[in-house]
Amino acid sequence: MSDSTPVWLVVGLGNPGPSYAGHRHNIGYLVVDELAARMGSPFRAHKSGRADVVEGRLGAPGTPGPRVVLMKSRTYMNESGGPVKQLATFYKVPPERIIAVHDELDIPFDTMRAKLGGGDNGHNGLRSMRSSLGTGDFHRVRVGIGRPPGRQEVADFVLSNYSSTEKKVLPFQVDTAADAVETLVTEGLERTQQKFNS
């Protein structure tokens, strides 16, 4: 990526490894996987050794869309800030062109919201990013997972698989969240919120 157009860094938050793959906490990984498929590129190891990346462009076919780096950290969720900071420095991406895609307890399943800045709401991935970047002023695509049923602990809930009913809807939710990321980099936050904030 040598030309001078600005780069967006899209961070799919999750935990690496097959044992975590289907968890609610890993929705960020699923969304960046979908974006990678749209870009027609597989993830590959970044030379930092701490993340897997895809470099390319997002947007309508035939139009040179914005330059985007998709990223999945190889660290656990609570340490994802370090690799994000490394890649932001490497690709010269300021915080306002970073998008974190993450699970959100306070939004019902199958809904989502985009926003810029804010707290971390107890989310370890966001907390780690904020700590490493020194600011919370990055974009978020918040994918709803809802609250745990009954008295289930939040930690157990986010680190568990989707229900069989949810699994039927999940591909559509992933697709919509990927659409929201595309809209954010091509049309901006306001348009994204109008289209996707449920």
UniProtKB/TrEMBL annotation:
Classification via Gene3D superfamilies: Peptidyl-tRNA hydrolase
Cross-referenced InterPro entries: Pept_tRNA_hydro, Pept_tRNA_hydro_CS, Pept_tRNA_hydro_sf
Site (Discriminates between blocked and unblocked aminoacyl-tRNA): N15
The keyword Zinc is assigned to this record: no
Protein EC: 3.1.1.29
Keywords of this entry: Cytoplasm, Hydrolase, RNA-binding, tRNA-binding
Positions with a binding annotation for tRNA: Y20, Y76, N78, N124
Catalytic EC class: hydrolase
Subunit structure: Monomer.
Function: Hydrolyzes ribosome-free peptidyl-tRNAs (with 1 or more amino acids incorporated), which drop off the ribosome during protein synthesis, or as a result of ribosome stalling.
Protein known as: Peptidyl-tRNA hydrolase
